[in-house]
């Protein structure tokens, strides 16, 4: 009798995950059934904790029966199972893509160290063909990764042909679900699986293994491009003066590679070639530009590039200051500290002090001998991009403008030596992205 090497191979693969919590994405089909049975055997041997998740899409009349089957199988193996019901929102996607997105969202929410999926070598070959049909680049042609750290995904069967999984299941007497939709060739993946790949294999035997090997080679190239982009990003000093000129100096292919890497780091989906080209053109040449994506905005102003959260903070219409030490402002904080001398301002917390965004026409004389300067001139001198200026707090006492956060204070309002007053500072909202925007001055009364 043939003895499958699968258990021993899987045991070696999973040794690094001893002591960790593994959750199998369990559909009840052949592939995930084999994976769950194997991991249930290996859990006490290797020493990992095992659970499973069944995602109930509600797309089939048999969905409830499938969930019940998965519950029975998991119970027989002593594996804790969660059945998660999801709504599949098309939102412009095909049914396959929408269901996959809902499934991965449910898996990502699991309280575990790793999600373990049953993708095999045939799935990898299909993925490569599917992406090539859509004009993918090197990153997409890399296919699925056996270990995807960013998404906590493990695919320990990725090098195993499906025929080997079938043989093991039959030998072990496993009962699994057959989903009729898996043979519906209106879906591109099914068309590739049941029509194209068999015909390609007739022309050149072993094409599935060759495609999977090609995906591995593309993955090596993708990793090298990522390493190059990380070096370029460090060299550019993203967020600092000169970073824009440095991007131009890279040349278009290398600059596009850097932008792809930057967007991927921020959790953005891969942009189309057209969108990427337009983004590079505007970041390279537009006078001032803020390009919003789903999570971040890429910005360029003068000779600096940076990224910041896509949603800009909104300041309140107006606030009265009555002596509070801290007031909230546009996601950040205004701080008022008792002080004396020229570092402080001569203001009285009597309810006549208000803070509001700019209204237009604001002017300040920040040095005693200097002329008054308008808001735009001060903001340009401070290096603030146009869209960063609308959130600046302006402190008025009656009809007298005393201070603008990040820009300065009225010289006539400064305290004399030894005179008591208040020192003001504004701490803007913290940028949570990995590459920071240029830091504006905190906006003290200095």
Please describe what this structure looks like:
39% of the residues lie in helices and 19% in strands. With 446 residues, the chain is an alpha+beta fold. It has three domains: 6-215, Rossmann fold (3-Layer(aba) Sandwich); 237-309, no CATH class; 319-427, no CATH class. The strands form five sheets. It has a six-stranded mixed sheet, sandwiched between helices. Strands 10-13-16-17-18 form a five-stranded antiparallel sheet, with no helix packed on it. Strands 7-8-9 form a three-stranded antiparallel sheet. It is elongated. 32% of the residues are buried. The model is unreliable at 431-436 and 439-443 (pLDDT under 50).
Which terms summarize this structure?
single chain, 446 residues, alpha+beta, Rossmann fold, 3 domains, six-stranded mixed beta sheet, five-stranded antiparallel beta sheet, 13 helices, elongated
Which residue ranges are poorly predicted, with pLDDT under 50 across at least 5 consecutive positions?
431-436, 439-443
- In CATH terms, the superfamily of the largest domain is HUPs
* Major sheet strand order: 3-2-1-4-6-5
Count of discrete structural domains: 3
Number of strands: 19
Looking at the overall shape, the CATH architecture of the largest domain is 3-Layer(aba) Sandwich
Q: Given the structure, what is the number of helices?
A: 13
- What's the story with the biggest beta sheet? 6 strands, mixed
The fold-level CATH name of the largest domain is Rossmann fold
Rg result: 30 Å
Regarding CATH, which class of the largest domain?
A: Alpha Beta
Mean pLDDT: 90
Helix percentage = 25-40%
Strand content: 15-25%
Shape: elongated
Q: Pairing-aware structural class of the strands and helices?
A: alpha+beta
For the terminal residues, how far apart are their CA atoms?
85 Å
GO molecular function: tRNA(Ile)-lysidine synthase activity
Family: Belongs to the tRNA(Ile)-lysidine synthase family.
Organism: Uliginosibacterium sediminicola
Keywords: ATP-binding, Cytoplasm, Ligase, Nucleotide-binding, tRNA processing
């Amino acid at each position: 009798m043939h003895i499958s090497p699968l258990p021993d191979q899987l045991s070696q693969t999973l040794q690094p995950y001893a002591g960790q919590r593994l959750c199998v994405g369990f559909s009840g089909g052949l592939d995930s059934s084999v994976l769950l049975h194997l991991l249930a055997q290996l859990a006490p041997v290797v020493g990992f904790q095992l659970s499973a998740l069944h995602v109930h899409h509600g797309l089939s009349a048999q969905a409830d029966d499938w969930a019940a089957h998965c519950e029975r199988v998991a119970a027989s193996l002593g594996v804790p199972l969660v059945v998660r019901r999801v709504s599949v929102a098309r939102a412009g996607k095909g049914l396959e893509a929408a269901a996959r997105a809902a499934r991965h969202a449910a898996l990502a929410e699991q309280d575990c160290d790793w999600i373990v999926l049953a993708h095999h070598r045939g799935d990898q070959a299909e993925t490569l063909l599917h992406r090539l049909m859509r004009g993918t680049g090197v990153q997409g042609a890399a296919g699925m990764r056996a270990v995807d750290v960013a998404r906590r995904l493990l695919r320990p069967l990725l090098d195993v042909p499906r025929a080997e999984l079938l043989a093991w299941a039959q030998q072990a007497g496993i009962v699994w679900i057959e989903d009729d939709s898996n043979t519906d060739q209106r879906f591109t993946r099914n068309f590739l699986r049941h029509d194209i790949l068999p015909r390609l294999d007739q022309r050149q035997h072993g094409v599935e293994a060759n495609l999977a090997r090609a995906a591995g080679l593309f993955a090596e190239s993708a990793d090298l491009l990522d390493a190059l982009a990380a070096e370029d990003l460090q060299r550019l000093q993203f967020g600092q003066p000169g970073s824009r000129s440095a991007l131009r100096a890279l040349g278009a292919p290398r600059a596009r590679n850097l932008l792809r890497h930057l967007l991927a780091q921020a959790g953005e989906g891969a942009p189309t070639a057209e969108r990427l080209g337009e983004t590079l053109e505007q970041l390279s040449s537009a006078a001032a530009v803020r390009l919003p994506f789903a999570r971040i905005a890429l910005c360029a102003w003068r000779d600096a590039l940076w990224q910041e959260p896509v949603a800009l903070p909104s300041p309140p219409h107006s606030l009265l200051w009555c002596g509070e030490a801290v007031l909230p402002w546009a996601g950040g904080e205004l701080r008022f500290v008792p002080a004396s001398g020229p570092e402080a301002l001569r203001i009285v917390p009597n309810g006549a002090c208000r803070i509001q965004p700019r209204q237009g026409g604001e002017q300040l004389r920040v040095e005693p001998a200097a002329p008054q300067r308008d808001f735009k001139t001060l903001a340009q001198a401070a290096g603030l991009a146009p869209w960063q200026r609308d959130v600046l707090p302006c402190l008025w006492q009656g009809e007298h403008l005393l201070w603008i956060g990040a820009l300065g204070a009225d010289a006539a309002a400064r305290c004399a030596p030894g005179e008591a007053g208040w020192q003001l500072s504004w701490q803007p909202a913290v940028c949570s992205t990995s590459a920071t925007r240029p830091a504006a001055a905190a906006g003290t009364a200095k």
